[in-house]
Each structure stands twice: as C-alpha cells, then as structure tokens.
Specification:
CATH architecture: Roll
Pfam families: 4HBT (PF03061)
GO biological process, one term: acyl-CoA metabolic process
CATH superfamily: Hotdog Thioesterase
Radius of gyration: 17 Å
InterPro entries: Cytosol_ACT, HOTDOG_ACOT, HotDog_dom_sf, Thioestr_dom
Helix content: 25-40%
Domain HotDog ACOT-type: 11-124
Organism: Actinoplanes siamensis
Number of strands: 7
CATH class: Alpha Beta
C-alpha cells in the first residue's frame, strides 16, 4: 500500500557548513581548487537531503554548478543548502556558497551556486520514499517551480540522448 509520508517544510532541511580554506585546498593558480568546493557543496547538499528524507541519501546528479568568484587561502567559506523539490524518492537540493575574505572587511560575497539531485535509499541501497517538501514562502515556491523546470530539462535531455544513440 502506497501511503504518502507527511510533508516537511523547506526550513526543516536547511543546513549550513563553514570552513576556512587552507594551503592544501589550492590549485596551481593559488586559488581554491574547484574540486574542493564541489566536495564541500556535495557534503552540505547531502546533509540537507538526509535531514529532509530522514536517512541516507546519495548523490544522483549534479545539475549545475557555477563558480562566480575565486576563493583564496584564508577565506571563510559558508555553504547553505535546502531541499527545493521532492519526487517519490528523489530530491533537488539547492546550494549557495559565500566567502568572507580573510584580508578584507565587508559583507560575504557569493562564490558559487549549485543544484544537485539526491535519491533516498534504504539499508539495502534501494530507493525509498521521501516526504513531500512544503515550501515555506514565495521564495521557496519559486525555487520549487524552477526545480521542476530543471527536472523537465534533465529528463528531456536524457531521452534525446537515448533516442540519438538508438538511431
């Protein structure tokens, strides 16, 4: 019997992680390696997905990651994540990354944004149902609608590629 789980508000899934970037995080240009930021994004998104779904969730796709500003050694970086949309067992998690310059006074700057898809899994690794996300306000409703657009594009792209391969 398919019982729907009770919904959870967007706020329930919100997670923030912070980290000071060090010399081991840099690339040959002296800025933080994109892969370090990608792992940081995946970590915070995974925590939000697990919090919302109430258990293990695994990364299924990274829809988009955009690096807006370089991050340097000593910068304090904050990653903010929340579940934007839920399906039966999958969730889209949005992530915003900001940085505080160690050598400058001022407001944090946005350094990256990303959208990831997670699937909730049981102990055997099989997909399990997730509670619906209940957007808290107009901004969360906008994120929900935009997540549906990204999902539609992801599925259409996948179908078009499969069709092209079959020809």
């Amino acid at each position: 019997m398919d019982e729907q789980l009770p919904g959870r508000p967007t706020a329930h899934s919100r997670v923030t992680l912070s980290k000071i970037m060090t010399a081991v995080d840099v690339n040959l240009y002296g800025t933080v390696h994109g892969g370090v930021l990608m792992k940081f994004v995946d970590d915070v998104a995974g925590a939000a997905a697990a919090r919302h779904s109430g258990g293990t969730a695994v990364t299924a796709a990274i829809d988009e990651i955009v690096f807006l500003e370089p991050v340097r050694v000593g910068d304090l970086v904050h990653a903010y994540a929340q579940v934007n949309w839920t399906g039966t067992s999958s969730m889209e998690v949005g992530v915003k990354v900001t940085g505080e310059r160690w050598d400058a006074v001022g407001d944090p700057i946005r350094v990256a944004t990303a959208y990831l898809v997670f699937v909730a899994v049981d102990v055997a690794g099989n997909p399990r149902p997730v509670p619906p996300v209940l957007p808290d306000d107009m901004d969360d409703r906008r994120r929900f609608k935009e997540a549906l657009i990204r999902r539609d594009h992801r599925l259409a792209r996948r179908a078009a590629i499969q069709k092209a391969r079959a020809e």
